[in-house]
Specification:
Helix content: 25-40%
CATH architecture: 3-Layer(aba) Sandwich
Distance between the termini: 35 Å
CATH superfamily: DD-peptidase/beta-lactamase superfamily
CATH class: Alpha Beta
Number of strands: 12
Structural class: alpha+beta
Number of helices: 11
CATH topology: Beta-lactamase
Strand order of the largest sheet: 2-1-10-9-8-7-6-5
Length: about 375
């Protein structure tokens, strides 16, 4: 009887494994079909890459092209602009410094960055990381936008970015509301510089890029893309599509959006950062205290809520933590299960956003809906 029981148990386990495999295969197929449809639709990206990892097993989906002129396909070592996913990296830097005792989430601008406007002095590091600081967003300043149109390749130092809104009061009392602001992550990076006496780029390398061996990830302070790279295109639905890969100097978004990465690097980072292995203790506990209604830009899949430089996405297939971003020519999504064992990244080489709350309506609404659906299908595949 014991032998029969063991054999029956083994059969049940085998059946469960087969069912799980079939479920994963079905989820992968749905994601693959969605990506294929996306690159064919008007206003969709010329190319898209998604990496799905379930424990130690990784699946890579590539559709379309990396370069419309040559027809070259994307390679996994090719660089992409990851836009506001850079904010997760500045969050990783700040929270690692908190875990090391070199910063506190309660540190204020007045105490750490006295050179910034006095009206901003009560804002804490935690509030900046969660976009509840009230700091005015420099990227919406008419003067900044005029400068960007006039000289898109001209470098701008972080102090210059701050200067566009330095004469403005806070948009609301810190902690009283949520509003996504690029100024928040510029300030978070300045906190890191003040705590270490090093440039943000160097601290980023020491605390995040080197420990995770992210060899294809960097923050170039110029308009040139590291080679090899995927070309990013405008979202024109009629006629030729312009290549905007090197049109804008990345310093205009700096720590809020200036980084580049590659699919496998970003997948590794998502698992470490969203999965909580870069830091623990009070820093991790604070990171995952989410504020309902706080969404990333562009909106991620499902219901969005904001933690510290991290978003929670509750989808029909389960909950993941991650970040999104979009920049001229590129849109990016990364997410991981809270334990870091399941992950998904999506890179598209056109900019798509539909966020009426922020006044951002970029590209085809239909293409953005299809891309956001692909984000959700990627989550389903990762959690299958």
């Amino acid at each position: 009887m014991a032998v029969i029981a063991v054999l029956a148990a083994c059969g049940a386990l085998g059946g469960a494994a087969a069912s799980a495999s079939a479920s994963a295969s079905s989820a992968d197929a749905r994601l693959g079909r969605a990506l294929s449809a996306l690159v064919r639709m008007p206003g969709g990206p010329p190319g898209i890459v998604s990496v799905v990892q379930r424990d130690g097993r990784r699946e890579v989906f590539r559709r379309g092209v990396a370069n419309l002129r040559t027809g070259a396909r994307t390679r996994l070592g090719d660089h992409w602009r990851i836009a506001s996913v850079s904010k997760a990296f500045s969050g990783a830097v700040a929270l690692r410094l908190v875990a090391q005792g070199k910063l506190s989430l309660d540190d204020t601008i007045a105490s750490r960055l006295p050179g910034l406007p006095a009206a901003w002095g009560s804002v804490t590091l935690a509030q900046a990381l969660q976009h509840v600081s009230g700091l005015p967003d420099y990227s919406t300043s008419p003067a900044f936008q005029d400068q960007l149109r006039a000289a898109p390749r001209a470098p701008l130092m972080p102090a210059a970015l701050i200067s566009y809104v330095a004469d403005q009061p806070l948009d609301f009392p810190p902690g009283s509301a949520y509003h996504y602001s690029n100024t928040d992550n510029v300030v978070a990076a300045l906190f890191a510089e003040a705590a270490t006496g090093l440039s943000y780029e160097r601290v980023l390398g020491q605390l995040v890029l080197s420990p995770l061996a992210l060899r294809h990830t960097s923050m170039p302070l110029g308009y040139r893309m590291p080679s090899p790279y995927v070309h990013g295109y405008d979202n024109n639905v009629r006629g030729p599509r312009a290549d905007g890969s090197e049109l804008v100097n990345a310093s205009v978004v700096w720590a809020a959006g200036g980084m580049v990465s590659a699919p496998l690097d970003l997948n590794r980072f998502a698992r470490a950062y969203a999965g909580g292995t870069l830091f623990g203790g009070a820093a991790r506990a604070a990171q995952v205290q989410f504020r309902a209604g706080g969404g990333s830009d562009p909106p991620g899949p499902g219901q969005n809520a904001a933690g510290l430089a991290l978003f929670r996405y509750r989808t029909r297939c389960g909950t993941v933590y991650g970040h999104t971003g979009n920049f001229l020519g590129y849109t990016t999504f990364m997410a991981s299960s809270p334990d870091g064992t399941r992950s998904v990244t999506v890179h598209a080489n056109t900019q798509l956003d539909w966020n009426p709350q922020l006044g951002n309506q970029v590209g085809s609404h239909a293409a953005f809906r299809a891309l956001r659906r692909a984000f959700g299908l990627g989550v389903c595949a990762a959690l299958a």
